[in-house]
Amino acid sequence: MPRINFPADTAAKLKRAVRNAKKPGMVAACFWCGHGYTTYNHDVENEHIANVCPNAPEELKASERKRLG
User: Fold this and answer.
1) Which of 6, 14, 35, 46 is the least crowded, having the fewest Cβ atoms under 10 Å away?
2) What is the pLDDT of residues 50-61, one digit of tens each?
C-alpha cells in the first residue's frame, strides 16, 4: 500500500470545507481552499482546482489541467 501524506493543517482544512459546504445553497466545498460549490460534478471540481484554487498543490493543478485537455 502506498503511504498517504496529509498536509499538517488537514483538520483545519476539513473544518473549513465542511463549514462552507453547510452554508445555504452550497452542495460541496473544496478541501484545499474552502470554496463553496452551488453545483458540483467532477468537471466543476477539476476546473476549480486547475484554474482557480489558490491553495491546491502545483502537481494537482497540473494533473487537473491535463484532464481538462
Assistant:
1) 6
2) 999 999 999 999
| DSSP-assigned letters across all residues of 4-69 | ----TTHHHHHHHHHHHHTSTT--EE-TTT-PEESS--HHHHHHHHHHT-SSS-HHHHHHHHHHH-
Three-class SS state of 3: coil
For 15, what's the count of Cα atoms within 13 Å in the CB-facing half-sphere? 4
Q: Provide CB contacts within 8 A for 47, sequence distance 6+.
A: 64, 68
Amino acid at 5: N
Cα 6 from Cα 29, distance rounded (Å): 18
CB atoms within 10 A of CB 34: 19
